[in-house]
Design a protein that fits this description.
Blueprint (H helix, E strand, L loop, with lengths): L1 H14 L10 E4 L1 E3 L1 H7 L1 H12 L5 E3 L8 E3 H16 L8 E4 L9 H14 L12 E3 L2 H25 L6 H19 L8 H9 L2 H6 L9 H16 L7 H30 L5 H20 L11 H8 L2
Parallel strand pairs: 1-5, 2-4, 3-6
Helix pairs in contact: 2-3, 5-10, 6-7, 11-12
GO cellular component, one term: peroxisome
GO molecular function, one term: alcohol-forming very long-chain fatty acyl-CoA reductase activity
Keywords: Membrane, Transmembrane, Transmembrane helix
Length: 324
Protein backbone atom coordinates (compact mmCIF):
# COMPACT_ATOMS: atom_id res chain seq x y z
CA UNK A 1 0.00 0.00 0.00
CA UNK A 2 2.77 2.45 0.93
CA UNK A 3 4.72 1.54 -2.22
CA UNK A 4 1.62 2.01 -4.38
CA UNK A 5 0.83 5.41 -2.85
CA UNK A 6 4.42 6.63 -3.29
CA UNK A 7 4.50 5.41 -6.89
CA UNK A 8 1.27 7.26 -7.71
CA UNK A 9 2.65 10.48 -6.23
CA UNK A 10 5.87 10.07 -8.24
CA UNK A 11 3.86 9.64 -11.45
CA UNK A 12 1.87 12.79 -10.71
CA UNK A 13 5.00 14.85 -10.13
CA UNK A 14 6.70 13.50 -13.26
CA UNK A 15 3.66 14.14 -15.44
CA UNK A 16 3.75 17.84 -14.65
CA UNK A 17 7.16 18.24 -16.29
CA UNK A 18 6.41 16.25 -19.45
CA UNK A 19 5.41 17.99 -22.66
CA UNK A 20 1.66 17.73 -23.39
CA UNK A 21 2.53 16.62 -26.93
CA UNK A 22 4.25 13.50 -25.66
CA UNK A 23 2.28 10.32 -26.52
CA UNK A 24 1.48 9.59 -22.88
CA UNK A 25 -1.63 8.57 -21.00
CA UNK A 26 -1.91 8.74 -17.23
CA UNK A 27 -4.05 5.93 -15.85
CA UNK A 28 -4.70 6.11 -12.12
CA UNK A 29 -5.77 2.82 -10.63
CA UNK A 30 -7.55 1.63 -7.51
CA UNK A 31 -6.48 -1.28 -5.32
CA UNK A 32 -5.98 -4.04 -7.89
CA UNK A 33 -7.46 -7.46 -7.15
CA UNK A 34 -5.50 -10.32 -8.67
CA UNK A 35 -3.87 -13.44 -7.27
CA UNK A 36 -0.49 -12.96 -8.95
CA UNK A 37 -0.36 -9.22 -8.23
CA UNK A 38 -1.31 -9.79 -4.60
CA UNK A 39 1.37 -12.44 -4.16
CA UNK A 40 4.10 -10.30 -5.72
CA UNK A 41 3.26 -6.87 -4.34
CA UNK A 42 1.44 -7.63 -1.12
CA UNK A 43 1.72 -11.25 0.03
CA UNK A 44 0.88 -10.33 3.60
CA UNK A 45 -2.43 -8.77 2.51
CA UNK A 46 -3.34 -11.95 0.68
CA UNK A 47 -2.37 -14.03 3.71
CA UNK A 48 -4.55 -11.81 5.86
CA UNK A 49 -7.54 -12.38 3.60
CA UNK A 50 -7.16 -16.15 3.62
CA UNK A 51 -5.38 -17.25 6.80
CA UNK A 52 -6.68 -14.50 9.06
CA UNK A 53 -10.30 -14.28 7.93
CA UNK A 54 -10.87 -17.69 6.40
CA UNK A 55 -9.11 -19.62 9.15
CA UNK A 56 -10.54 -17.51 11.95
CA UNK A 57 -7.17 -16.15 13.05
CA UNK A 58 -8.47 -12.57 12.92
CA UNK A 59 -12.13 -11.67 13.42
CA UNK A 60 -12.01 -7.89 13.83
CA UNK A 61 -10.70 -4.98 11.79
CA UNK A 62 -10.51 -1.27 12.46
CA UNK A 63 -12.11 0.98 9.87
CA UNK A 64 -15.28 2.49 8.53
CA UNK A 65 -17.71 -0.11 7.22
CA UNK A 66 -19.54 2.54 5.20
CA UNK A 67 -16.40 3.71 3.36
CA UNK A 68 -15.92 2.78 -0.28
CA UNK A 69 -13.42 -0.01 -0.79
CA UNK A 70 -12.66 1.27 -4.32
CA UNK A 71 -11.08 -1.92 -5.66
CA UNK A 72 -10.68 -2.84 -9.31
CA UNK A 73 -10.14 -6.23 -11.01
CA UNK A 74 -6.83 -6.59 -12.81
CA UNK A 75 -8.41 -7.68 -16.11
CA UNK A 76 -10.29 -4.37 -16.31
CA UNK A 77 -7.04 -2.52 -15.66
CA UNK A 78 -5.24 -4.48 -18.39
CA UNK A 79 -8.00 -3.89 -20.92
CA UNK A 80 -8.08 -0.18 -20.14
CA UNK A 81 -4.32 0.22 -20.56
CA UNK A 82 -4.40 -1.54 -23.94
CA UNK A 83 -7.28 0.55 -25.26
CA UNK A 84 -5.88 3.80 -23.84
CA UNK A 85 -2.48 3.19 -25.45
CA UNK A 86 -4.06 2.42 -28.82
CA UNK A 87 -6.38 5.42 -28.57
CA UNK A 88 -3.48 7.77 -27.77
CA UNK A 89 -1.58 6.85 -30.92
CA UNK A 90 -4.14 8.46 -33.25
CA UNK A 91 -5.70 11.10 -30.99
CA UNK A 92 -4.17 14.50 -30.22
CA UNK A 93 -4.71 16.28 -26.91
CA UNK A 94 -3.76 19.72 -25.72
CA UNK A 95 -2.75 18.22 -22.38
CA UNK A 96 -1.85 14.77 -21.15
CA UNK A 97 -5.11 12.84 -20.67
CA UNK A 98 -5.75 11.41 -17.21
CA UNK A 99 -8.01 8.37 -16.84
CA UNK A 100 -9.14 7.18 -13.42
CA UNK A 101 -9.72 3.43 -13.52
CA UNK A 102 -11.85 3.33 -10.39
CA UNK A 103 -15.02 1.66 -9.20
CA UNK A 104 -16.08 4.14 -6.52
CA UNK A 105 -17.96 6.55 -8.78
CA UNK A 106 -19.41 4.07 -11.28
CA UNK A 107 -19.99 0.83 -9.36
CA UNK A 108 -19.24 1.46 -5.67
CA UNK A 109 -18.79 -1.28 -3.11
CA UNK A 110 -18.50 -0.61 0.62
CA UNK A 111 -16.36 -2.42 3.14
CA UNK A 112 -19.40 -3.73 5.02
CA UNK A 113 -20.45 -5.64 1.89
CA UNK A 114 -16.97 -7.14 1.43
CA UNK A 115 -16.50 -8.28 5.03
CA UNK A 116 -20.03 -9.68 5.08
CA UNK A 117 -19.38 -11.55 1.84
CA UNK A 118 -16.09 -12.97 3.16
CA UNK A 119 -17.72 -14.29 6.32
CA UNK A 120 -20.65 -15.86 4.49
CA UNK A 121 -18.36 -17.39 1.87
CA UNK A 122 -15.97 -19.04 4.32
CA UNK A 123 -18.86 -20.38 6.38
CA UNK A 124 -20.42 -21.94 3.30
CA UNK A 125 -17.09 -23.02 1.75
CA UNK A 126 -14.69 -23.29 4.71
CA UNK A 127 -10.97 -23.89 4.43
CA UNK A 128 -9.56 -27.28 5.37
CA UNK A 129 -7.42 -25.77 8.12
CA UNK A 130 -9.84 -23.69 10.15
CA UNK A 131 -8.92 -22.88 13.74
CA UNK A 132 -11.91 -20.76 14.73
CA UNK A 133 -15.30 -19.97 13.26
CA UNK A 134 -14.77 -17.44 10.43
CA UNK A 135 -16.08 -14.06 11.50
CA UNK A 136 -15.52 -10.54 10.19
CA UNK A 137 -16.44 -7.31 11.96
CA UNK A 138 -15.42 -3.71 11.34
CA UNK A 139 -15.02 -1.34 14.29
CA UNK A 140 -15.06 2.40 13.76
CA UNK A 141 -14.04 2.77 17.40
CA UNK A 142 -10.35 2.27 18.04
CA UNK A 143 -11.07 1.24 21.62
CA UNK A 144 -13.51 -1.50 20.60
CA UNK A 145 -11.07 -2.89 18.05
CA UNK A 146 -8.17 -3.04 20.50
CA UNK A 147 -10.40 -4.50 23.22
CA UNK A 148 -11.58 -7.30 20.91
CA UNK A 149 -8.11 -7.86 19.50
CA UNK A 150 -6.41 -8.30 22.85
CA UNK A 151 -9.27 -10.24 24.43
CA UNK A 152 -9.90 -12.62 21.52
CA UNK A 153 -6.46 -12.92 19.96
CA UNK A 154 -3.45 -11.50 21.74
CA UNK A 155 -4.51 -12.68 25.21
CA UNK A 156 -5.06 -16.33 24.18
CA UNK A 157 -1.84 -16.16 22.13
CA UNK A 158 0.17 -15.25 25.24
CA UNK A 159 -1.48 -18.09 27.17
CA UNK A 160 -0.79 -20.66 24.44
CA UNK A 161 2.83 -19.50 24.11
CA UNK A 162 3.24 -19.89 27.86
CA UNK A 163 1.91 -23.44 27.74
CA UNK A 164 4.01 -24.28 24.69
CA UNK A 165 7.12 -23.08 26.50
CA UNK A 166 6.75 -25.99 28.91
CA UNK A 167 4.93 -28.76 27.05
CA UNK A 168 4.39 -27.93 23.40
CA UNK A 169 6.23 -26.96 20.23
CA UNK A 170 8.14 -23.70 20.11
CA UNK A 171 5.52 -21.74 18.19
CA UNK A 172 5.32 -18.04 19.00
CA UNK A 173 1.75 -17.02 18.28
CA UNK A 174 2.37 -13.62 19.82
CA UNK A 175 4.88 -12.81 17.06
CA UNK A 176 2.32 -13.78 14.44
CA UNK A 177 -0.31 -11.53 15.97
CA UNK A 178 2.16 -8.68 16.30
CA UNK A 179 2.71 -8.90 12.53
CA UNK A 180 -1.04 -9.02 11.99
CA UNK A 181 -1.48 -5.93 14.16
CA UNK A 182 1.18 -4.06 12.17
CA UNK A 183 -0.63 -5.00 8.98
CA UNK A 184 -3.93 -3.77 10.40
CA UNK A 185 -2.23 -0.51 11.33
CA UNK A 186 -0.93 -0.14 7.77
CA UNK A 187 -4.33 -0.79 6.22
CA UNK A 188 -6.19 1.36 8.73
CA UNK A 189 -5.62 4.58 6.76
CA UNK A 190 -7.27 3.02 3.71
CA UNK A 191 -10.07 1.11 5.46
CA UNK A 192 -11.11 4.13 7.52
CA UNK A 193 -11.47 6.48 4.56
CA UNK A 194 -13.21 6.60 1.22
CA UNK A 195 -12.29 8.55 -1.90
CA UNK A 196 -14.24 9.87 -4.86
CA UNK A 197 -12.35 10.01 -8.16
CA UNK A 198 -13.70 11.58 -11.33
CA UNK A 199 -14.26 8.83 -13.89
CA UNK A 200 -15.16 11.15 -16.75
CA UNK A 201 -12.05 10.17 -18.71
CA UNK A 202 -12.89 6.47 -18.49
CA UNK A 203 -16.44 7.04 -19.73
CA UNK A 204 -15.24 9.20 -22.63
CA UNK A 205 -12.74 6.53 -23.65
CA UNK A 206 -15.46 3.87 -23.45
CA UNK A 207 -17.77 5.87 -25.70
CA UNK A 208 -15.06 6.27 -28.36
CA UNK A 209 -14.26 2.54 -28.37
CA UNK A 210 -15.74 0.44 -31.16
CA UNK A 211 -18.32 -2.25 -30.40
CA UNK A 212 -15.90 -4.99 -31.41
CA UNK A 213 -13.18 -3.69 -29.11
CA UNK A 214 -15.70 -3.32 -26.29
CA UNK A 215 -16.37 -7.06 -26.47
CA UNK A 216 -12.68 -7.97 -26.56
CA UNK A 217 -11.32 -5.32 -24.17
CA UNK A 218 -14.19 -4.71 -21.79
CA UNK A 219 -13.20 -2.15 -19.14
CA UNK A 220 -16.66 -0.86 -18.23
CA UNK A 221 -16.74 -1.08 -14.43
CA UNK A 222 -20.51 -0.56 -14.45
CA UNK A 223 -21.01 -4.07 -15.84
CA UNK A 224 -19.12 -5.71 -12.97
CA UNK A 225 -21.15 -8.04 -10.73
CA UNK A 226 -19.48 -7.86 -7.33
CA UNK A 227 -21.22 -10.97 -5.97
CA UNK A 228 -20.00 -13.11 -8.83
CA UNK A 229 -16.54 -11.57 -8.90
CA UNK A 230 -15.87 -11.85 -5.16
CA UNK A 231 -17.08 -15.45 -5.16
CA UNK A 232 -14.70 -16.38 -7.98
CA UNK A 233 -11.89 -14.46 -6.29
CA UNK A 234 -12.30 -16.15 -2.90
CA UNK A 235 -12.79 -19.56 -4.49
CA UNK A 236 -9.62 -18.97 -6.47
CA UNK A 237 -7.77 -18.14 -3.26
CA UNK A 238 -9.12 -21.32 -1.69
CA UNK A 239 -8.10 -23.53 -4.62
CA UNK A 240 -4.89 -22.00 -5.97
CA UNK A 241 -3.34 -20.17 -3.01
CA UNK A 242 -4.32 -22.27 0.00
CA UNK A 243 -4.33 -25.39 -2.23
CA UNK A 244 -7.65 -26.74 -0.94
CA UNK A 245 -9.39 -29.29 -3.13
CA UNK A 246 -13.12 -29.03 -3.74
CA UNK A 247 -13.42 -32.78 -3.20
CA UNK A 248 -12.41 -32.17 0.43
CA UNK A 249 -15.20 -29.64 1.03
CA UNK A 250 -17.41 -32.09 3.02
CA UNK A 251 -14.47 -32.73 5.34
CA UNK A 252 -13.91 -28.99 5.80
CA UNK A 253 -17.59 -28.49 6.61
CA UNK A 254 -17.47 -31.27 9.22
CA UNK A 255 -14.44 -29.59 10.76
CA UNK A 256 -16.34 -26.30 10.93
CA UNK A 257 -19.30 -28.07 12.58
CA UNK A 258 -16.96 -29.44 15.24
CA UNK A 259 -15.54 -25.96 15.81
CA UNK A 260 -19.05 -24.63 16.34
CA UNK A 261 -19.70 -27.40 18.87
CA UNK A 262 -16.43 -26.68 20.71
CA UNK A 263 -17.24 -22.97 20.76
CA UNK A 264 -20.69 -23.70 22.19
CA UNK A 265 -19.24 -25.86 24.97
CA UNK A 266 -16.55 -23.27 25.72
CA UNK A 267 -19.11 -20.46 25.96
CA UNK A 268 -21.27 -22.56 28.26
CA UNK A 269 -18.30 -23.16 30.57
CA UNK A 270 -17.36 -19.46 30.57
CA UNK A 271 -20.90 -18.41 31.48
CA UNK A 272 -21.13 -21.09 34.18
CA UNK A 273 -17.88 -19.86 35.76
CA UNK A 274 -18.96 -16.21 35.47
CA UNK A 275 -22.29 -16.87 37.16
CA UNK A 276 -20.62 -18.90 39.91
CA UNK A 277 -18.20 -16.04 40.61
CA UNK A 278 -20.31 -12.91 40.22
CA UNK A 279 -23.74 -14.21 41.25
CA UNK A 280 -22.85 -16.71 43.93
CA UNK A 281 -24.94 -14.87 46.51
CA UNK A 282 -28.04 -14.86 44.31
CA UNK A 283 -30.67 -17.56 44.20
CA UNK A 284 -30.15 -20.69 42.19
CA UNK A 285 -33.03 -19.77 39.90
CA UNK A 286 -31.48 -16.37 39.18
CA UNK A 287 -28.12 -17.96 38.37
CA UNK A 288 -29.70 -20.42 35.96
CA UNK A 289 -31.76 -17.70 34.30
CA UNK A 290 -28.91 -15.18 33.85
CA UNK A 291 -26.47 -17.86 32.72
CA UNK A 292 -28.93 -19.26 30.19
CA UNK A 293 -29.76 -15.84 28.76
CA UNK A 294 -26.08 -14.92 28.46
CA UNK A 295 -25.22 -18.24 26.83
CA UNK A 296 -28.16 -17.98 24.42
CA UNK A 297 -27.22 -14.46 23.32
CA UNK A 298 -23.59 -15.49 22.83
CA UNK A 299 -24.65 -18.52 20.80
CA UNK A 300 -26.91 -16.43 18.54
CA UNK A 301 -24.23 -13.77 18.05
CA UNK A 302 -21.59 -16.38 17.15
CA UNK A 303 -23.64 -18.56 14.81
CA UNK A 304 -26.04 -16.23 13.04
CA UNK A 305 -25.31 -13.39 10.64
CA UNK A 306 -27.96 -10.67 10.75
CA UNK A 307 -26.37 -8.59 8.02
CA UNK A 308 -27.96 -8.43 4.55
CA UNK A 309 -27.77 -11.71 2.61
CA UNK A 310 -25.41 -12.09 -0.34
CA UNK A 311 -25.70 -14.21 -3.45
CA UNK A 312 -23.34 -17.19 -3.30
CA UNK A 313 -23.01 -19.51 -6.25
CA UNK A 314 -23.65 -23.19 -5.83
CA UNK A 315 -20.73 -25.55 -6.31
CA UNK A 316 -22.33 -26.94 -9.47
CA UNK A 317 -22.76 -23.45 -10.91
CA UNK A 318 -19.14 -22.61 -10.16
CA UNK A 319 -17.85 -25.80 -11.77
CA UNK A 320 -19.98 -25.24 -14.86
CA UNK A 321 -18.87 -21.63 -15.19
CA UNK A 322 -15.17 -22.41 -14.81
CA UNK A 323 -15.22 -25.67 -16.81
CA UNK A 324 -13.99 -27.51 -13.72
Amino acid sequence: MVFKTSLRNLANQTGRHVSPRAPINVAKLDVILNFAVDMMLSPLCLQMGTDCCGKGVLTNMCGSSSAKADIIPVDIVSNLMIVAAAHRTYTKYESIPVIHCCSGALNPVQWHFIVNFIERFFRAYPLNECYRIPSTHFHSSRFLFEFNFYMKHMGPAYLIDLLNAFWGPKIRLTRIYQKVLRLVETLHYFTARGWDFDSKGLLELWETTSDEDKKIFNFDVRQLDWDSYLFDYLMGVKRYVVKDRLEELPKARRNLSWLKLYATIFNAIIWWISVRIFARQRSRRYRWFSGSIGFLLTYIWSNYNFRPPVRLKSLEEYKQRTNF
